[in-house]
Amino acid sequence: MKTFKYFTMAAVAASSLTFYSCGDSDDNGGGNRPSVDDIVEDGFYISGEALPFSGVDVKGRMKSTPNEVDASSREGLYDIYMTLEAGKSFTFTEVKGSTTTSYGPDGSYKINQENVDDNYTGAILKGSYAAGGSFTVDESNLYHIAIDLQTKNFVVVPVTQWSIIGSCTDAGWSDTEGLNILKASYNSTKMTYTATGVVLKEGEFKFRHSGAWKQNLVEDPDVKINTNFSGVAGALSNNQISFTNHLAGGDNAALTKDHRGVYTVSVIWEPGQENFTVSMVKTGDAVIADYPEELWLRGGAITGSDDTGWNADYSIRMAKVPGNSHLFWNIVYLHEGMGFKFDPTNTWNGDFGATGAASAIEDGVEYGKGGDNITVPAATGYYVISVDLKEEKIAVVSEVKIYLTGDDQVGSWGTASPEYMFTNLGEEFESPELKAGALRMFAEAPYVSDWWQREFHIIDGKIAHREDVELTPAQATAGQKAYLNFRTGEADLR
Q1: Is 487 exposed, middle or buried (0-12, 13-18, 19+ CB in 10 A)?
Q2: Topology of domain 296-396, per CATH?
């Protein structure tokens, strides 16, 4: 999901994502016994010639981190961020009293990870560990390292970039447009990831690395680490925003209108520091459009009569797209040949429609934003309507595609497969037969890039769009089907 998607996790310092490790013991003949002269505390460490310091050092001590799956505290789950030099060895080292034990890989451990939801894509180290041996990486870089003592598994993920991601940025909760990416050159003792010209406005955000929200460590039991962190953004003072209370996978940080501007944003790592240092320096003002909080569809197309349809009593509220204040969408039932417009206040203040002729798009048409009524382009029935206020365009699509999603029903997220598609019965949409568990659904809609931004739920017999709050999904019983009536807004499981 992932979440981002939005994510709420236990309060754990982001730089507390320090690593905890094991190594060869005095008792089992391990050869590389690191110096522990400066170590005064038992625990797991990462050590070796690949690190920017020698011996077993407090700067390499791994710290507890929550399981991303449910934000729970898991005994023996540890992580750390550390620079590693290519071709040089490192181990996980356990210090227990006067005894040190070093651990290396238990079998092959260099893999190319692909097609894992919300995880890093590319070359990583992953596998199980055992006493003896050592690891190497193929590229000098900062790495996110984690181990799980209960299952004796580990993962080492390169930190290829950081990004500031969220509704306070133009890219929203996606960095696929290449916006707001913080890059760094390799330096073993200080990695500074920086982006300039970052436009920030009111909204929420997190920092995440390498295009991932999480990283799988163990599949059974399900254990993952967070690859993102948040915190508290302070007031703008001397053209800088303070950033405190770093939390791995924590609640989103927030900015207000007072923070609006153009910034240079940096995330800085140094070995042994308690947290990443975050620098947010305002370098200029930004012209930022104010988009309406709500948008309503109004017109005779709703009821099939100009006498009633333009009345606010019959208007349809458009759903907000999470993290994108300029986007709205919904599935609506409209009558052939009738007109409609949009109204941000539902009082005919600031209303708009289309301008010029329609352009063909997949399964529908697209208009420029203007003052003319929009006429329903085809037969009476359901349509997907999307509005992009930034680009000033409106899409009307006659092919409504709704899908089941999620681990319980499908085993994956955001998969638009015909076998998981709802059937249009005329007034209602009927789901395929459900499995026991969480019922999650999404529809396809123009301009809205991520499936979770088009997600909706059944809550108290009504269709509820996700919008800016992640909703609790309904629980289905095996053999049931879901029925959705977007004309009345009602929904149920039968």
Answers
A1: middle
A2: Immunoglobulin-like (2.60.40)
